[in-house]
Amino acid sequence: MPPTVEQVAARAQVSVSTVSRALRDVPGISDSTRKRVREAAEELGYAISPSASRLATGRTRTVAVVVPLLSKWFFAEVIAAAGRVLSQAGYDVLLVELSTPELRERFFAGGRLRGRSDAVLVAALQLTPGELTALQGQGQAVALVGSEREGASSVRVEDRAGGRAATRHLLNLGHERIAFLGIGEAEGSPLGGVPPAERLRGYRDALAEAGLPEEPALEAAVENTVESGAVAMSGFLSAAEPPTAVVAASDELAFGAIATLRAAGLSVPGDFSVVGYDNHELAGAVGLTTMDHCVAEQGRLAAEAILAALGGAPASAGRIEPRLVVRGTTAPPRRLRRAAPTN
Fold this sequence. Notes:
six-stranded parallel sheet
């Protein structure tokens, strides 16, 4: 028979209610009594029931993590990093995927998290004020990854600076016709939103700084997949005056662009330069020059913000500065290499 709370109370010479409060770290118990209760519980091999503790405190010790798509590398990285922080703090993770407008509408209208979680981490969904209010009305502390709302903690990447840095890298190499391969929001898509738009603004900033005009024909916005990147790259190559380089708003799009370039018999970076955005786990394997926006760090910071909020701290705002990782997919355009003097 497993030990009972009554046996712990008898050994520690306190009441059953005192045992329960001491083992749950409820205020109002002296340090000496708390120590005596814990020693008695350890000697007897008694562990407080998690379900009983949750009922007593009104806390579920669970954090919901809401993402548009569980299958994407970015979200898997955010979930894994946040999960490690939350697990170490004694919290379980409840995963919620909102991959369609219908799922999203039902989720925010249905009060599904009441009594199931204490807080919610929302990644890459631009919450409306009403959606945030709905979560907070269910007693949830809220942290956002990739967006901001007053009253919620947030972690944002300086994506405009990232798009500018990626484009400047190509400009500094001598490229003047630089395309931008962005992430569009197809009808019903949960993706897109603030970060991709900010990367595009950064690209345009860098062109303006270099005195180069914006060319709509050199901008495309497609679904964030390898296949879409490949198709969009075909479109750029068929232009009357094709670009010599591309900034992709994700590494997946960049992978697709590289596949099309190589299928067309073009060398990367000999004939064409490519910069991605993510520092995907496969970026190093293919030698992709990319912008690292510290995906795991985003998840970690958001989880820490959640824990701080649950501890009574006010909403916080974290910022991450992306950094350029130069690998093997960028080089000066061929015309400049041909013009360079030989020794």
